[in-house]
Amino acid sequence: HHVPALVVAPASLIYNWEKECARFAPHLNVLVVAGTKEEREELLRDTRNIDLLITSYPLLRRDNDLYAPFFFQTLILDEAQSFKNNRSQTFQSIKQIHAGARFALSGTPIENSLEELWSIFDVVLPGLLPKQKAFKKLPMEQISRRVRPFILRRMKKDVLLELPDKIESNLLSELTDEQKKLYVATLQKIQKDAKQLLQEEGLNKSRMKILAGLTRLRQICCHPSLYVENYTADSGKFDQFMDLIQELRGNNRRVLVFSQFTSMLQMMQD
User: Fold this and answer.
1) Which of 148, 235, 240, 265 sits at a 20 to 30 Å CA gap from 124?
2) Which 8-state DSSP code applies to residue 83?
3) Are strands 5-9 and 52-56 parallel, antiparallel or unpaired?
């Protein structure tokens, strides 16, 4: 019986995982479980030939019932600080997954308190550490000794030769449903107008107007209210940005933000 593995990552990284798999393990049959609830149910209905499923923490929370029948040979939890709070729904939903080997990946396994390390170990190796009350009384040295055999730690000096000069991560964001509707409607109008313009004025004269149309579509991707007055719904990219900023500020990072639209920067600042 074929048993797949499961990767759970922050929403912005799931397609990144897919891309890296295609690059480093092209022989693997990979499936990203995302989209609407119906689409996700459909994808999970038949996983007979799938080696690896990839989904996000927010989707896992909603799909717990869909994953209940599965047993995964391997579970990989990326950016494990995502479930550092063991009272959170994310933590509860990961605890319910049946899996053989479990790996947690994190650049910051302990950000604020040792409790966060407890949460990660309670998922990866339940029972290694005592219940929380007793855990709080353990001396640091004892905790350290107990977890050491299960942590593979990469120091900067060990990988310095392999480290790129600058690390670029491209995060993909998904438009919200409202955004998609607006985008499609705008695109259709722009296509219609462009066709007419080309017939009436030729390419040279219509060039600027067509570029203006493309700019409009880019604005809708950033946040529709850059272009539509009184737009009250969300924007996928903007929400993702806010999550990222909160996480970075929580880690006391200093951040520089660039946008091609000053109006977008204004919204972020507000």
Assistant:
1) 240
2) G
3) parallel
Which of 75, 52, 68, 65 shows the shortest CA–CA distance to 126?
A: 75
Q: pLDDT for 137-193, tens place per residue?
A: 999 999 999 999 999 988 878 777 777 777 788 888 889 999 999 999 999 999 999
Q: State pTM to two decimals.
A: 0.69
Going by C-alpha positions, the residue among 116, 111, 188, 121 that lies closest to residue 151 is 121
- The full length of the chain comes to 270
Contacts 24+ apart (CB under 8 A), 250-259: 250/111, 251/108, 251/111, 259/222
The residue among 172, 130, 201, 239 whose CA lies nearest residue 32 is 172
Using the structure block, give the residue that is written with the tokens 């990219």: 237
Q: What is the tens place of the pLDDT at every residue in 28-76?
A: 999 999 988 999 999 999 898 999 999 999 999 999 999 999 999 999 9
Residue with tokens 């994310």: 90
One DSSP character per residue, 1-18 reads: ----EEEEE-GGGHHHHH
The SS3 assignment for 2 reads coil
CA–CA gap between residue 239 and residue 55 (Å, rounded): 18
For every residue of 167-186, DSSP letters joined together read -------PPPHHHHHHHHHH
Q: In the 8-state DSSP scheme, what is residue 110? A: -
